[in-house]
Design a protein that fits this description.
By secondary structure, the protein is mostly helical. It is elongated.
Length: about 130
């Protein structure tokens, strides 16, 4: 029979004793970048709809998206795109049961972070 008495120990680890890991941070940011890309997609659809509406409205929307704030949003979205893409490739490797070791997982996480910055800079360089 199971012991039904109340014990004084916690049922799960508390946040104070949990050691934050790179994989958990990357998982959270993978979700953030997915949501961010969806919101950026809405901005791009708004830009296309403005182009189809009228020249005045397109000039208004284009002015917003090409302002320094709009360009900053697009740059952050570009960084999020490359991060999300490369982290997705990393997860595909894991689905193929490759790179699951602690050292390999940490190394591939750093590859994703560095390559997302490099590919974002390369994309900006090629576009401008």
């Amino acid at each position: 029979m199971a012991d039904t008495g109340q014990s004084n120990r916690p049922l799960s680890p508390h946040l104070q004793v949990y050691r934050y890991q790179m994989n958990s941070a990357m998982s959270i940011f993978h979700r953030f970048t997915g949501v961010g890309m969806a919101l950026t997609g809405i901005l791009l659809v708004w830009w296309f709809l403005a182009a189809a509406t009228s020249p005045e409205y397109f000039a208004f929307v284009d002015g917003i998206l090409t302002s320094w704030v709009g360009l900053l949003v697009m740059l952050i979205s570009l960084l999020g795109f490359w991060y999300h893409f490369l982290n997705g490739v990393r997860h595909l490797r894991w689905d193929a049961v490759k790179g699951l070791g602690v050292g390999e997982s940490l190394r591939s996480g750093w590859y994703v972070l560095v390559l997302s910055v490099v590919l974002s800079a390369l994309t900006v360089y090629l576009v401008y």
